[in-house]
Amino acid sequence: MKKVLIAVLCVVLAVVLAVGGYVAYVFLAWYRLDDDLPLTVDTLGAAAGAAAVGETWRVVSYNVGFGAYSADYSFFMDGGRESRARSPEAVRENLTGAVEAVTALDPDFLLIQEIDTDGTRSHHIDELALIRERLGGAFACGTFAQNYDSPYLFWPLTEPHGANKAGIAVFSKFPVASALRRSLPIEGGFMKLLDLDRCYSVQRVPAADGRELVIYNFHLSAYTSDGTIANQQLEMLFADMKAEHDAGNWTIAAGDFNKDLVGDGGASFGVTGPEYTWAQPIPASIVPEGFRIIAPYDEAAPVPSCRNADRPYGEDDFCVTVDGFIVSANVETAAAAVADTGFAWSDHNPVYLDFTLR
After folding, report:
1. Of residues 247, 172, 232, the one with CA closest to residue 203
2. Are 303 and 315 in contact (CB under 8 A)?
3. Domain segments of the chain: what residues?
4. What is the pLDDT along the chain (358 residues), one digit of tens a residue?
5. CB 229, CB 186: distance < 8 Å
6. Segment holding 134, helix H or strand E
7. Whole-Å CA distances, 253 to 56, 205, 241
8. Is there a smaller number of Cβ atoms within 10 Å at the N or the C end of the chain?
9. Fold for the domain defined by 34-357
10. Dihedral angle, C-alpha 173, 174, 176, 182, nearest 10 °
């Protein structure tokens, strides 16, 4: 009996040490990149020249969901089953479909979120290289900003999510003079391990009249304990954009807000099932004078930009518009819409905005 008790205690001690060691590893391995990091502007093809004032251009934004979310995919952090892309072939198929979907929209500026450069969940495929290969020479230049580099997550136990390095990319048909990575505020304590690092990127595009079109790409926090962090992130972004607008430049931001841009969640799309609390409306008080948030929403023929991935996609699933745009007062806007892919390649649909520099 004494030997059995000793054996049990040894097992318990080993488990405690293993768990304690893992927790220590996660906190020690977690890090944030510095703020105001210059980004490399990579030459990809021939440039179209400076952006002209008075002409209409198109910006497209698409969260590609690390190449995992086919329409029948569900994700464990949304209440679903799966934690990784099903195979390397599935990653390539989804990203190829995503690139074809956005190139069909003929964007002058393409902003993509949730690109893995090295991830357990995406079978260690360099998705940035794959996307650039599929785009060919369609764009003059591109930038990439690392959003986060997570320690190895041993959950779910049957198929751990693993360690994942991901970021956001911008592709432009016009020359980009310089680019910068800005670090966003995030939650502290244990919650930082779930939501990880966050950033937005700033691209400066010279216009024909000597001023600049400043383009922002962002992917705001989703898995937070409350909605205040995403509001603080927006306040920082607005302050940056306002400083540029006050200097005489044009500003456009696009990306995944992880906020309900329409305001009433699934009801906007005829969904009567359960609501989800992760996508909250944006308080009007944080939007500065002279700026507009543009939701690509057509009341007559509504198409959502995002689905909740707690199960394979169906017509009665909770859907919402979380992808959209921010523009300053000197940017004139025309069409803003969602391209309906049926969530074939991601849990998001691409969104686009046509605009003119005034």
Report:
1. 172
2. no
3. 1-30, 34-357
4. 777 777 777 777 777 776 777 677 667 776 789 999 999 999 998 877 788 888 999 999 999 999 999 999 999 988 899 999 999 999 999 999 999 999 999 999 999 999 999 999 999 999 999 999 999 989 999 999 999 999 899 889 999 999 999 999 999 999 999 999 999 998 776 565 566 789 999 999 999 888 999 999 999 987 666 667 888 999 999 999 999 999 999 999 999 999 989 877 667 776 655 556 667 888 889 999 999 999 999 988 899 999 989 999 987 788 899 999 999 999 999 989 999 999 999 999 999 999 999 8
5. yes
6. helix 127-135
7. 17, 13, 8
8. N
9. Deoxyribonuclease I; Chain A (3.60.10)
10. -60
E-strand stretches of the chain: 37-38, 42-43, 56-63, 109-119, 141-149, 164-172, 178-183, 199-206, 212-219, 250-256, 291-294, 306-307, 319-320, 323-328, 331-338, 351-357
**Structure-block tokens of residue 37:** 């990091």
